[in-house]
Specification:
408 residues, alpha/beta, 8-stranded mixed sheet, 7-stranded mixed sheet, 12 helices, 29% helix, 21% strand
Length: 408
């Protein structure tokens, strides 16, 4: 991960958080000598929101919680506008917002970075969250808005838990990432994420601190990160590292299993077409109008493409990939926020704004106490399940045009 020495030109003054008092970034540490807790695949929204709620509720006084999110809703702020109340993860999703307030009240230092982009109506949906927190949260909860003029949207999704050590540093305990937003409707989606611990989660904390400094127009020196099986990459104004890593894995692998909410990126399609029958792709039916040309192109090359048909207007919202070598062993897995689109994978240029994304790439690694294989195996089995349950011809589900403007 390259160093970000100066996020903005010197002439720009530092910007204060939208809520709370700014503090210097914590000095980070993590135990990387012996990985004793293996990463976990949170294979559906129920597991994802259950673990998210658990992380927030077990944070202790003096701990840090970092949260970066594209879409954040709650019935307290947005009403019950989506038919997801019966979804298994809905109660845990609804517990996130009041849980952050309660964590701050018991002495947890809660820091948020949220997207500031506008919907079609010209409103900034996440401002309702700020209004609620301004009224209910203590001063040790801060909110920064990602600069909306710098990228299309801040589409990164991560939650990081850190605890203080005697030497004054903060040890990274856990990080969660994936495709899931915190929207009222999200619990009904076909989506999920992954949980990483200790040294595997250190990169997620660095990404948050770096992004927070970017919001505040402050310099940030990226600390050296140890080598390990989990690599955290981001797309931004400076970087298209996610795209390059994804394309490199497509070149290296023998077989690829890709699940994408939206897949329209020409380079990715070319990489999949080169694999032919050894590439397997699951797409979301709601985006069939936009993905149809991509599907036809890949089908002509022999790629196994199906459409996922969640019920009730839900989405197949995953952004996941599994790559196998010629022996059928795991080469790597990817999980995070990036759709395979130009906005999702390319860095911003002077004439085009792209998204800010975060993706964890996981390599196979095993020791006496640790293994990434269960996570990779879980991702592969979920891809195979969704492929088996998919259909060759999609029945289009009406998409949310508000989300179309940003989430692609």
């Amino acid at each position: 991960m390259e160093s970000l020495k100066s996020a903005h030109p010197r002439r720009l003054r530092p910007r204060k958080p939208a809520l709370g008092q700014a503090q210097s970034p914590a000095r980070l540490s993590a135990d990387t000598t012996d990985r004793r807790r293996s990463p976990r695949y949170l294979g559906d929204e129920e597991q994802f929101f259950g673990e998210t709620r658990s992380v927030i509720e077990r944070a202790k006084p003096g701990d840090l919680l970092y949260l970066q999110m594209y879409e954040f809703e709650n019935e307290l702020t947005h009403g019950n506008t989506h038919n997801a109340t019966g979804a298994p993860g809905y109660a845990d999703q609804q517990a996130i917002l009041p849980g952050l307030v309660e964590a701050a009240k018991r002495g947890v230092n809660v820091q948020l970075v949220l997207d500031e982009s506008s919907s079609m109506s010209g409103q900034v949906p996440n401002k309702a969250i700020v209004k609620y927190l301004r009224k209910n949260a203590p001063e040790n909860l801060t909110i920064d808005f990602y600069p909306k003029k710098e990228v299309n949207i801040d589409h990164a999704k991560e939650l990081v838990h850190l605890s203080p050590k005697d030497d004054g540093s903060y040890e990274v305990q856990e990080a969660i990432t994936g495709g899931s937003n915190y929207g009222n409707h999200t619990a009904a989606n076909n989506d999920g994420g992954a949980a990483f611990y200790g040294g595997d989660a250190l990169g997620a904390a660095v990404v948050f601190q770096r992004d927070q400094a970017y919001c505040r127009r402050l310099a940030y020196e990226t600390p050296a990160l140890p080598e390990g099986p989990v690599q955290w990459l981001e797309t931004s104004k400076e970087s298209d590292a996610v795209r390059e890593q994804m394309l490199e894995l497509l070149r290296q692998c023998d077989t690829a299993w890709i699940q994408q909410f939206v897949l329209t990126h020409g380079d990715v399609m070319d990489g999949l077409k080169e694999k032919g029958t050894k590439a397997h792709v699951v797409l979301d039916s709601g985006w069939s109008t936009y993905d149809k040309e991509a599907e036809a192109d890949m089908l002509a090359a022999g790629v196994n493409v199906v459409w996922s048909n969640p019920t009730g207007g839900a989405k197949m919202h995953r952004k996941e990939g599994i790559y196998l070598d010629a022996q059928g062993d795991f080469l790597a897995g990817q999980i995070g926020s990036a759709n395979a689109t130009a906005k999702g994978l390319n860095k911003s240029t002077s004439h085009r704004r792209a998204n800010h994304e975060i993706v964890a790439f996981v390599r196979p690694y095993e020791s006496a106490h640790y293994s990434t294989k269960p996570l990779l195996q879980g991702m592969l089995e979920k891809a195979q399940e969704n492929l088996a349950n998919g259909v060759a011809t999609p029945t289009p589900v009406p998409i949310d045009t508000e989300e179309f403007l940003g989430d692609g």
